[in-house]
Every structure is written in C-alpha cells, then in structure tokens.
Design brief:
heterodimer, A: mainly alpha, elongated, B: globular
C-alpha cells in the first residue's frame, strides 16, 4: 500500500514535468531539416559502398580488357578470380542492405531485437568466413597474374607491388579481426537484452 | 502548400513530443542534449514510417515502440556504458543549480531510474506515464502477465534505490 502511494506520487511528478515540456517554436522546422539530412546520409550509407565497389569492378574490368589484356590462361583465371571476388562482395552488400532495412524501429521490442540479432549474426558470418574467402580469392588471383606481368615490368617494380600487397593483406587482416570482435560484443549485448525481455 | 503527410506528422509531433521527450530524458538520466537528439531520432523514424502505418495499434502505442527501440539502439551505439556514481548522475540531471522542490523531485526520480537497467527504465517510464499492461505488452512484445511480473520487480528495485539514495 505504501509502495502504491509512493508510486502515485512519482506518477504525479512525472506527469507534471511532462506537462511542462514546451513545444519549441522552431522545433518542427529543425526536424524537417534533420529529416532531409538523414535521408541523404541514409542514401550514402546504403548505396555508398555499392557505388565504390561497382566503380572498382568497372575500373578493374576495363584495365584487364583495354590496358593489360592478359594472354596466359593462368593470368586469365587470376583476373577472373579478382573480378568474381568483387562481384560476390557487391552481392553480399545488397543482401546486407536488405537485412539492415528489416531492423525497423516500428516493430515491438522483442521482434526488433530478434531482427537485430539476425543482422549481426549475418555480419559475423560475413566477417569471419566470407570476407577472408573473398580476400583469399583476390590474393590468389593477384599472384596468378604476376608471372605474366613480370614479362612487362621490371623485377624491382614487381617486388614493390608484391610487398605492398602483403602490407595491404596484413592491414585487411586486422580490419576483419576488429570487425569480428565488434560484432561479437554487439551480439552478446543484444542477446542479453533478449534474455531480459523474455525471462 | 502542406501535404497530407506533413499535416498528419505535425499533428502527431504536437500531440506526442512531450511524452517522447520525457521518456528520452528519463532514459538518459535527464541529460537534456542527448534526450533532444533521441527525440529527433524518434520523430525522424515516425516520418520515415508514417506511410506504412496501418492502424493496427494507436499512434501512441506505435510511437512508444519507436521510442523504446530508439533508446535501446542508442545504448548499442554508445557501446559499453560506464557505471555512473550517484554524484555523477546528479550532476547530469537538469536544473542542478536552481532546484525548486518540483525540479528536485523529478531530478531524484531521474537519478533513481538511471540506476535501473535499460529495459527496466523503459518499463517503469511507461508505467509512470499511466500506460496499462496491455499497451506495454504490445510495445515490448510479451504477454501482459509477464509485464505485470516484471513491473512488480522493477517497482521494488526502484523503491530500494530511492531508499538507498535517502529519498524513500
């Protein structure tokens, strides 16, 4: 009974404070400005990576077609692996956008939490399995081309390209590892939330 | 000339801005700037999804759902939250200087709510806002009986916190 009376008092305080929250005169216009900015940012967030990847794909394809049309079968397979890796990466990005859009805030908390879990589980698989495979394919493809390239460029330049690729691979390894760790932290937090909701 | 969506949106904003702001304030322990950002996030989502609103629930319940999910997403974005001491929380709540009895009372409440976990914070705020168990169940996605049990527990926790803070 005492708790109920206390609680009624809290409810009164809460509602009094709520009633004192005033509508700012310019609030709605500020909101419309923010909506415009957010829509623009979302567009880049969703499609920015795809545009960059598509541009890379076009540049690489044009490079192999016009600038350096490789003749050896080994090199052609290598170029194919590099291009396929990029195509797979673009496909994953499109699926990822679809899953991200499903994490809508209009669902109830439990459904929203479960959609979020599914999204991060998908990202975890991408980071831990698919991304290394794509990088691997790209790397194998790259080194398959180098024997033919060595016929046209000096040994030192080729060595420089090979070493720089190793550096990039190391950086990529750490980026992927960081991505997996981040997904694991987020996943465990959301799973705890789901446990709190359902228990 | 304003479109129908603009007119509806502005009506919704006018009717529910205080409820959303109060929830956000309670969730972020009275930090006005963060609450304002969260409130804007909520209404950006309202705008974005207004066309898909089918009327399966009231606008209020729908906005509650968006508010709760926005607040929980904010925690995810913020990653691990540092543990706040009481004095830190008290300094964070609004009106630290010129405290009238009313402001002191709401500060005390924000401080106590801020010590609950995120889900409990949202549950208790909906109760403070006079929402019935069915509405809360619809927002969270669990059974009303489960909501009743949870709220009973949260009320007990809140009371204990207030007693420990010397306000019980």
């Amino acid at each position: 009974m005492v708790m109920d009376n206390d609680f009624k008092e809290f409810q009164n305080e809460w509602n009094n404070n709520k009633n004192n929250i005033e509508l700012s005169p310019n609030g709605i216009n500020t909101l419309y400005d923010k909506i415009k900015k957010k829509e623009k940012a979302n567009y880049f967030f969703y499609y920015g990576t795809i545009i960059i990847l598509l541009a890379t794909l076009i540049v690489i394809s044009l490079f192999f077609y016009y600038v350096a049309p490789v003749k050896e079968i080994l090199s052609r397979i290598g170029a194919g692996l590099m291009i396929c890796g990029l195509i797979v990466r673009i496909g994953i990005e499109i699926i990822s956008i679809g899953k991200a859009k499903r994490m809508n805030k209009i669902h109830n908390t439990l459904t929203a939490t479960e959609n979020t879990i599914r999204f991060h589980q998908f990202r975890k698989v991408i980071h831990s399995i698919v991304a290394p495979i794509i990088v691997g394919l790209y790397t194998i493809g790259f080194y398959m081309i180098t024997p033919e390239f060595s016929l046209y460029i000096s040994r030192w330049n080729l060595l420089l390209i090979d070493i720089s690729y190793i550096v990039i691979a190391i950086i990529l390894f750490f980026i992927i590892r960081k991505g997996i760790k981040k997904e694991m932290v987020i996943l465990s937090e959301i799973m705890n939330l789901r446990k709190e909701i359902t228990e | 000339m304003k479109s129908n969506q603009n007119i509806l949106f502005e009506e919704i904003y006018q009717q529910h801005h205080a409820m959303v702001m109060q929830m956000c304030l309670g969730f972020v322990r009275g930090d006005h700037d963060i609450a304002k950002d969260l409130q804007q996030e909520v209404f950006i989502s309202v705008w974005k999804n207004l066309k898909t609103f089918r009327g399966a629930s009231s606008y209020k319940t729908w906005i509650y759902r968006i508010t709760v999910n926005t607040c929980l997403q904010y925690v995810k974005k913020k990653k691990k939250e540092p543990t706040f001491s009481i004095s830190e929380i008290e300094n964070q709540v609004p009106f630290p200087e010129q405290k009238t009895p009313e402001k002191r009372a709401i500060s005390t409440l924000y401080t106590a709510i801020g010590q609950l976990n995120e889900l409990d914070r949202l549950l208790i705020m909906m109760v403070l806002d006079n929402q019935d168990y069915d509405t809360i169940a619809e927002v969270i996605g669990i059974q009303p009986t489960n909501v009743r049990v949870k709220i009973h527990r949260v009320k007990k926790r809140l009371k204990k916190i207030l007693e420990n803070n010397g306000n019980g």
